[in-house]
UniProtKB/TrEMBL annotation:
Lineage: Bacteria, Bacillati, Actinomycetota, Actinomycetes, Pseudonocardiales
InterPro entries (UniProt xref): DUF389 (IPR005240)
Name of the protein in its database record: DUF389 domain-containing protein
Transmembrane segments: 116-135, 141-162, 174-200, 220-237, 244-265, 277-297
Keyword Transmembrane among UniProt keywords: yes
UniProt keyword annotations, A-Z: Membrane, Transmembrane, Transmembrane helix
Organism this protein belongs to: Lentzea tibetensis
Amino acid sequence: MLHLRAVCPAERTEAALDVLRRHAGATHLVLLRGAAVEPPGDLVEADVAREATDEILAALCELGIDRDGGVTLEVIDTSLSDHADRAEEAAPGDGSDAIVWEELISRTGEESKPSWTFQAFLTIACLLAAVGIATDSPVTIVGAMVVGPEFGPLAAIAVGLVARRWDLVKRAAVALGIGFPVAMAVTAVFALAGAFTGLFDRAAVFGDQHQVDFIYDLSAYSLIVAMLAGAAGVLSLTSAKSAALVGVFISVTTVPAAGYAALASVLGEWDRAGKSLLQLLINLIGIVAAAALVLLIRRRGATDGVTTRPLSSG
């Protein structure tokens, strides 16, 4: 169940109440007249079954409540109510399979902002990958995979493509288009400093690589793993199985490939640098393609389409 709270202009409160009363997936309806101060209006609250949320939100948005008032959603961890149980049973579909598109768009949109925090995490991840490559340490490579924040923008691109939210696609593409080159440039400077001080020796790093060769070793499995990870990642996002995301992070070779390309180019291993960049590209494309395909398949069962309101600039 989700808790819905709507600030309604007074003249549209009855229409909003009618939407919630008529829908079998809504219960625990509460009305507080004049409770909202900014924007002014009435406060309407209800608990809604997850599988009914998209339809209810669409109806409220048709009333313009999202423009002239506001609608918020919160996850209910525990609900002890026969009314709630009946609402979940009456709502079409299964709550564990339902996608709340507005929630998904908001979440991926927030994670895809080209912020300093995003850039810092991506840069640190690439630096960790470079250290893992130089020391032939798969454990450090796995750490770099987990730290990397790139799945957020990749998921946002997939969601934006399916929902035709080009503002979301653009924002995520900018985050990745700036984030990876900057992270790789910082890693290259780090590699230059390491080569100058003797910390990174070409013969030692690339002479007889053993456990980290998979990073630049291209094969059909590169695309297969990327697509499986993309599918698992978007399923995790849409079903609130966040623990599965860790497995996604350590399955794909995005950050390690970026770190390897930066390190190899500085130390003159151009063939490996080129293969690493291709590995990075294959993983990015595979993740987005699989995530978009899963969303398209799951969307076919939805009773309503996705709204097309643009993201706010904030």
